[in-house]
Structures are given as C-alpha cells and as structure tokens.
Design a protein that fits this description.
Blueprint (H helix, E strand, L loop, with lengths): L2 H21 L4 H27 L5 E8 L2 E6 L2 H27 L5 H19 L4 H19 L5 H33 L17 H14 L11 H4 L5 H10 L1 H17 L1 H5 L6 H18 L4 H21 L3 H32 L10 H4 L1 H15 L5 H16 L2 H27 L14 H16 L5 H11 L2
Antiparallel strand pairs: 1-2
Length: 486
C-alpha cells in the first residue's frame, strides 16, 4: 500500500469496524473479535507509516475541498506519528481489557460501547494526521460527540449530569474560543495549513494581540484540561473504567495536549513566541494547574477521582514544557504524551480490576488488597512509579528531559514546579501502594483473587511496556526529537 492509502486505511478501518460491530451486536464473541481485529489492523497501518516519517518523508492525503483554498487534508509528521502510535497501540490492550470488564460487570449496551470506542479511534487518527486547523477542528469535535455516549453509558442521573458537564465544557470552549481563534488565524495568515516554524511568523502579529490569540487557542482546546476549564475530566469519571482509560490515556486528553503542542509549534512557532513577552503567562498558568491539581488529588479518597486530578496535573506538564519554548522542552513534552499514556492506562486498568473483584472504589478501602491481587497492585505500583518519575519506568525519561529543558531555558520557576509536583505525586501514590501490600486486610473480609484473565493480561502488558520504554525508546525519542527539530 502507498503512504496515502495507509493514511486512508488508518481513518477508515476503525470507522468500518464500528459499522461491523453494530451488525454483530447479537453475537458477543463475534463482536469482540471484530473489535480486536479492527484494533490490530489500525495499529498495523500506523506502524507501516512510521519508517518513511522517521526517514524524513511527510506522507499526505487531501480528500475534499471544504472551503476555497482549504481541503480536508492529512499529513503525517513526527508529532502526529507519535500520537497515532500511542493511541492505536493502546486500543488493542484496552479492547482486551474491556472484554473482561464489560462481561464481569454485566454492563448494558455493550455493542454501542464498542462501536463508539471505534469511532473515537477514527476521530483520534483524524486529529493526529490533520494537515490544517480546519481538519483538526472537525475531528476534534467529532471526538467529543462520539465519546459523550461513553461518558453517559450507565444512563442514570449521575451519568447524565457528568455528560452535561462533559459536553457543555468541551463544546463550549471549542465553539466560543477555539473556532474564533482559527478564523482569526485565517484572517491574519491567509492559510490554515500547519507549517514548521509557524504559519503566523510572518503575519505581523505581536504584543497583546498575539497573547490574546494564544489564550483563545490554549483555553479553547478544553481537552487539555488546563485550569479553569478542567472540570469535565473529573465529571466524566462516572463512565465505566475502560472509558476512563480512553479519556485519560488513549484519546481525549492526549488529543488536547497534542493540539496545544501542535498549535505552539506549527501555528505560532517557537521562535515567534520566544521573541515576545506575550506568552509569558502560559508557564504560570500551566505551573499553577500542575500544583493545584496535585493538591486536589492528594485529598481525594475516591480512587478514580484521585487519578483524574493526577491526569489534570500530568497534562499540564506537557503544556508547561511546550511553553518554555526551547527545543529540548518541546521534545520532552512530546515524549511525555507516550510515557503518561502507558502509566495512566495501567493505573485505571488496576482501579477497574479492584472494583470488578471487590467493589471497592475508595483509597481508604484498599488495605491489604495487594496481598490478594498481587498482579493488579504490582502493575499499579509500576504505573505510580512512572508518573512520579522514578527510574526505570517510562515517566522518568520524559520528566528527566523536562528538567533538562527547564534548566536549558533558565526557567527556575518551572524547575521548582517540576520538583514540587514530583513530591506531591509521591505523596498521593505511594500511600496506596503501602496500604495495599503492607497493611492487613480488614478482619472478616472474604478472600478474593484476581480479575478475569483478559483484564490481568492487559494491565500486565501496559505495566511491562511502562518498564520497557526507557530501554526501547529509539522510535519515540526519534519522533520527539524530530518534532522539536533536534
């Protein structure tokens, strides 16, 4: 297949999978087989695109002219390649995990669940490979709409309330802030095509106008969960755990920080932003989000809520590093997309396994659970160590580059934020691991074992990948460095 055909296949395979899933709805085994096959085919298509991108090629496909001079276009560059590899690879293990979780918990509407999941991956591929802002915007909105039924999956009052916050904040920020920013970019630059160095670098935009446009983008991309437009993320925790994993690790939040990083690199340009003071506010806002979300996580007893606010904090690592406007920090931001994805999906898989077996949802209930679910809590410990930044887990690699980038930029407040947040990460993760393994379970509590094997296999695989990434980091590092022009 040609590169253009591979791009088309990456977009169409999950969409076609969703259609087949709808047809296979009354045959659960066939439905789940279709899910796994579609996920594997998508990953194969994305992997096949990696060699030419690593060699310097930028495969592209322009499908349809939407407006005069603006096409529905796709181009594969290193940052999009990294995002697509992460999302498509994790869809496979998330599908495996979902089979065990959905069956063990007797979840309703499973066909709709798998179909919407597939459509979410189709939208994610469109975001990853978007060649211009309009294409990015269309698939960004599609991702919001197709994940809303997943957030409201249970259909009760709590799910509907969470869905309203989810849909209201994400659609509101994108329509009220992001869309006007895109229109303004067209007015200033005469193009919406992403370009190395930034499409606004020769637009004559400076001072408050530049800073204001940057703010429209950063807060308009609500999926990045920068405070104060972060509330949709904890509200969406009413969804089943595989959906939480999708939101936090595979697609939605990664689409947000990916879009912010792409806007900084390919719309504004690092040199253009570095030459003015109009963007000086962004590291402060990102740093505040890192610390504030960590403090909320520290005091959250509900396990999924703690993980949700951990995600808000970890996402702002990406924004903080990108806002320092030095190549090494940009590379660290790109790499953290992959490192965080592996660690956080492992944590959510473990939380779902604990709930499936024990029904426990609170941190205060986890005494001794590691003695009875050693594989699950061992994987949880690996994910936690990664997000803290302890070697040899994947998070150490990206966080170490973040420290180096902040030092290279001479941005000492960023170094302080990174150091303080590392201590806070340890403060809200390590007590869970300690209680699970070193405290006795409550007296009289019935014994229990591990979750269904598909769930344990999935969380073991992501934990192993979290440990393996620093030793097999050639491809993600090469893509991250190419993103930053190193």
């Amino acid at each position: 297949m040609s590169a253009a055909q591979l791009i088309a296949a990456a977009l169409l395979v999950p969409a076609a999978g969703a259609g087949l899933l709808a047809l296979a709805g009354r045959r659960p085994n066939l439905r789940e087989a279709v899910t796994l096959v579609a996920a594997a085919l998508l990953f194969a298509c994305v992997v096949a695109l990696a060699p030419p991108v690593l060699a310097g090629a930028r495969p592209q496909l322009f499908a349809l002219e939407l407006l005069p001079g603006i096409a529905l276009g796709f181009r594969v560059e290193p940052l999009g390649m990294l995002f697509a590899l992460v999302a498509s690879g994790l869809w496979i293990v998330n599908s495996l995990y979902s089979i065990g979780y959905m069956r063990a918990n007797g979840e309703p509407h499973q066909t709709r669940f798998y179909a919407c999941f597939a459509l979410a991956l189709a939208a994610t591929m469109g975001i990853a490979f978007a060649a211009n802002l309009l294409t990015l915007f269309l698939f960004y909105e599609m991702l919001t709409l197709v994940t809303w039924p997943l957030v409201t999956h249970h259909g009760d009052d709590e799910a509907r309330a969470g869905g309203r916050v989810y849909l209201g904040l994400l659609l509101g920020t994108s329509i009220v802030l992001l869309l006007p920013a895109i229109i303004a970019t067209w007015a200033y630059a005469g193009t919406l095509e992403f370009a190395p160095g930034g499409i606004l670098r020769d637009a004559g935009l400076s001072g408050p106008a530049l800073g204001g446009l940057l703010a429209l983008y950063v807060f308009g991309i609500g999926k990045a969960a920068l405070m104060p437009v972060h509330r949709w993320l904890p509200a969406a925790m009413v969804a089943p755990t595989p959906v939480s994993a999708l939101l936090h690790a595979v697609a939605v939040v990664k689409a947000g920080v990916f879009a912010v990083l792409k806007v900084i690199l390919y719309v504004f340009g690092v040199e253009a932003l570095a030459g003015v003071r109009a963007s000086d506010w962004l590291p402060a806002v990102a740093g505040f989000t890192v610390i504030a979300a960590s403090i909320v996580a520290l005091h959250a007893d509900n396990l999924k809520r703690r993980l949700a606010y951990s995600t808000v904090s970890q996402l702002s690592y990406v924004v903080l590093s990108a806002s320092l406007l030095v190549p090494l920090s940009a590379a660290a931001a790109a790499l953290h997309i992959a490192a965080h994805a592996l660690g956080k999906i492992t944590l959510f898989f473990a939380a779902g396994a604990i709930y499936t077996v024990t029904g426990k949802t609170e941190v205060s209930q986890l005494d001794g659970v590691g003695r009875r679910m050693p594989w699950t809590m061992g994987a949880f410990a690996v994910g936690a160590l990664s997000l803290i930044g302890i070697p040899p887990a994947a998070g150490f690699l990206s966080k170490w580059l973040m420290f180096q980038g902040a030092a290279a930029a001479g941005h000492w407040p960023a170094l302080v934020v990174l150091g303080a947040s590392t201590l806070l990460n340890a403060a809200y993760f390590l007590p869970i691991v300690h209680a699970a393994f070193l405290r006795a379970p409550p007296a009289g509590e019935p014994g229990h074992g591990e979750a269904p094997w598909t769930m344990v296999a999935a969380l073991t695989a992501t934990a192993a990948a979290t440990l393996a990434l620093p030793f097999a980091a050639a491809v993600p590092l090469a893509l991250a460095r190419a993103t930053a022009g190193l």
